[in-house]
Design a protein that fits this description.
The protein has helices at residues 19-25, 50-65, 67-74; strands at 6-9, 12-15, 34-37, 43-46. With 75 residues, it is of the alpha+beta class. The strands form two sheets. Strands 1-2 form a two-stranded antiparallel sheet. A two-stranded antiparallel ribbon has the order 3-4.
């Protein structure tokens, strides 16, 4: 477990992530992190954007539905 401390940053409150947390998340300065609520009510911090995953799933479903048409168009 990594303990994080809230710090005053100007008029806001921020969290300083230690180097080992950045490495585990696979992020660097300037990257975007997402704080999401899991089905169990826990808050999760990750570099994974759940909105993009949903869009990819919809795209894959669309491609599966029109697979034959894409094959014809690719010729």
């Amino acid at each position: 477990m990594i303990t994080l401390k809230l710090s005053q940053i100007g008029n806001s409150v921020g969290v300083i992530l230690p180097k080992d947390a950045l490495v585990k998340l696979g992020v660097k300065k300037g990257d975007t992190l997402y704080l999401t609520e899991g089905p169990d009510g826990e808050m999760r911090l990750s570099a994974y954007n759940p909105g993009v995953a949903e869009e990819i799933a919809l795209g894959e479903e669309f491609m599966d539905d029109y697979r034959d048409a894409f094959r014809v168009l690719a010729k």
